[in-house]
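Sat 14:20. Reprocessing the chain from the morning session after the first attempt stalled halfway. Input below, unchanged.
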Amino acid sequence: MSVPQLIHQIDKVIRDTSTSREEKIENLQNLAMTCWQEVVPEYGSSETFQALEPAEIQKRWTEVRDEVEKYEAKSQILYVLDWPASSGDFYWIK
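Finished this time. Tokens:
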């Protein structure tokens, strides 16, 4: 799945009212991890990841941020995408 498709899917899960809170959180976590793998596939290999220039990483995430800006729930989408780094608790999911 491409990054725009993943972001669209995250938005759909956030807005979904027919799925349980636990299932939504699990789906969002899986989508976040998949997005990270698409944006920074080097993340799994510490040597390769450390070799990346910070400007390159920032450029990749800027493209993601530009895509997220198209959505009304952008702050929630960014929270989801930050989850692999922050291990947030998704307290806001209903």
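The two ends are 26 Å apart (CA to CA).
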